[in-house]
Amino acid sequence: MSVQVQSERLAEVVPDALAAIHEVLERHRVTEQEWMAVLGFLTEVGRADEFVLLSDVTRTSVLIDALTHGGDESGATASDVEGPMYTVEPPFRKKIYEEYEGMGDDDPLFVRGTVTSTGGSPLPEAVVDVWQTGPAGGYDVWDERQPEGNFRGRIRAEADGSYEIQTMLPRPYTVPTDGPTGRYLEAIGQHPWRPAHIHFKVTAPGHQTLVTQLFFPDDPYLENDTIGAVKKALVRPVETHEDHLTCDFDIVLRPAG
Ligand code: BEZ
Ligand code: FE
Q1: Residue nearest to atom 8 of ligand 1 (CA)
Q2: Tens-digit pLDDT profile for the chain (257 aa)?
Q3: CA distance 217 to 16
Q4: What does R_g of the chain's alpha carbons equal in angstroms?
Q5: What does residue 170 show for φ and ψ, rounded to 5 degrees?
Q6: Ligand 1 pocket member 194 (CB < 6 A)
Q7: According to DSSP H, which parts of the chain are helical?
């Protein structure tokens, strides 16, 4: 049955997709040599495991996120794209990093809030899973100075739905540019920068999983994120205290079904 539904869906979408591609090829009179270069590029993207990255920088991921979650007026926190840097089941820990040489001496940042259902009830069984770049350099997997799994972690909400993670303020970073997607960005003149952000994946029994990102004001790339994923509703102020920073981020999940 599901195969039948899928092939019905394919029969509906594929002819339109092909017609759109053929129309562009015709309009620009694309040559055999150019088309072979396109096929070669896509082959390289596959070999380099960069299809998610390509989907992101062409802003296709943002479009699909909007088509999937847009128009949600339930009051749930806005979703955002996951990107390619998520790793499953990071450790449960409140402080999501270990110190490493070269990390600088920024004050810690406490991100805190409450996880509730759209009806307002707290969700004490919610799990908040976060990942981000370090304060100096990129993700743990790109930055050999960082221990494996650094700036990744999960925390379970308290009985009143509250959560708090200890982290550090991330900085803007460039998406990987050393593969075919990087060459594509350079060729079309698109910069590779993303504004500083923290990724969230939040689950709770009986609720839809929320994948989203938290952004911070005054970032030079808020208005021109290379993957176009910034939503105003996800930008939260950071407060400076004597020896630490805080950022409040309440999270609202939609009941499943
Ligand atoms: C990210 O936000 O983690 C990301 C998005 C696109 C490419 C690489 C990383
Ligand atoms: Fe990221």
Answers
A1: 175
A2: 555 668 999 999 999 999 999 999 999 999 999 999 999 999 999 999 999 999 999 999 999 999 998 877 889 999 999 998 999 999 999 999 999 988 999 999 999 999 999 999 999 999 999 999 999 879 999 999 999 999 999 999 999 999 999 999 999 999 999 999 999 999 999 999 999 999 999 999 999 999 999 999 999 999 999 999 999 999 999 999 999 999 999 999 999 97
A3: 40
A4: 21
A5: -75, 170
A6: yes
A7: 2-27, 32-47, 51-57, 60-69, 180-188
| Ligand 1 in reach of 84 Cβ (< 6 A) | yes
Three-state secondary structure readout of 24-89: HHHHCCCCHHHHHHHHHHHHHHHHCCCHHHHHHHCCHHHHHHHHHHCCCCCCCCCCCCCCCCCCCC
Tokens of 228: 């176009």
CA distance 166 to 151: 10
- Which residue's alpha carbon is at the smallest distance from atom 1 of ligand 1? 83
In this structure, the residue with its CA closest to atom 2 of ligand 1 is 83
Side-chain-side CA neighbours of 71 within 13 Å: the count stands at 4
- Which pair of structure tokens corresponds to residue 58? 């062409």
Instruction: Tell the residue number behind the tokens 């970032």, with chain if given.
Output: 219
Residues 52-96: pLDDT tens digits?
Answer: 999 999 999 999 999 998 877 889 999 999 998 999 999 999 999
